[in-house]
Design brief:
With about 190 residues, the protein is an alpha+beta fold. Helices cover about 20% and strands about 45% of the residues. The radius of gyration is 16 Å and the shape is globular.
Length: about 190
């Protein structure tokens, strides 16, 4: 029930306030981005960053623009090979972020507001709070969607064999931020019972 309420809240907030929509269609197929490289799509800037395995980290990864449908969307997507992408944007904080993913091996990284979590797969992060935002994961380990609801000043994602597409980042307005705060309080109160 909490997941349904949170997802409905996410849709309402984005439809009222507006959103960044990142589909990577402006990027050239085959382009590669390494740690320190940046690109901009849909009003958001992504910077390649250090990737964290369960037992350590690396600076040697690459993100590649592909069109394989591995994230579940259509058109261009980003394929990760041992790298994180950290997204920045002009309006802060956002009120929520969603994206489509496809996992094909190795562990994943998710960072919100500087709080980095490593996991075997995204489903392990379902229902957790990361950096003050509540994370919901739908679908299976192979493919699905991530929804993070709450004030988000920064977020990043990475994996060993991971594809992402269709990022939607909700731009808040005062009324929608009040809804986010109320949703967070209801979630915490229900979780404590």
């Amino acid at each position: 029930m909490r997941k349904i309420v949170c997802l409905l809240l996410f849709v309402c907030i984005c439809s009222v306030a507006g959103a960044y929509v990142v589909t990577f269609e402006n990027l050239t197929l085959g382009n590669e981005f390494h740690v320190g490289d940046t690109f901009t799509s849909g009003g958001m800037t992504a910077t390649g960053g250090e990737y964290f395995w369960a037992s350590g980290s690396t600076l040697a990864g690459v993100a590649t623009v592909k069109n394989d449908g591995k994230a579940g969307g259509a058109g261009n997507e980003i394929w990760f090979n041992n790298i994180n992408l950290n997204f920045s944007y002009a309006v802060k904080p956002l009120s929520g972020v969603s994206l489509m993913f496809g996992e094909y091996g190795g562990n994943v990284n998710l960072s919100i507001n500087g709080d980095l979590k490593k996991a075997a797969d995204f489903s392990a992060l379902n229902g957790t709070t990361i950096g003050g935002a509540t994370v919901f994961v739908t679908g299976s380990n192979a493919s699905g969607s991530i929804f993070a609801v709450g004030p988000i000043s920064s977020f990043g994602i990475g994996g060993q064999e991971l594809a992402i597409d269709n990022i939607i980042a909700c731009i808040p307005e005062p009324a929608s931020m009040a809804l986010v705060a109320l949703g967070g309080l209801l979630f915490r109160k229900h979780k404590q019972v």
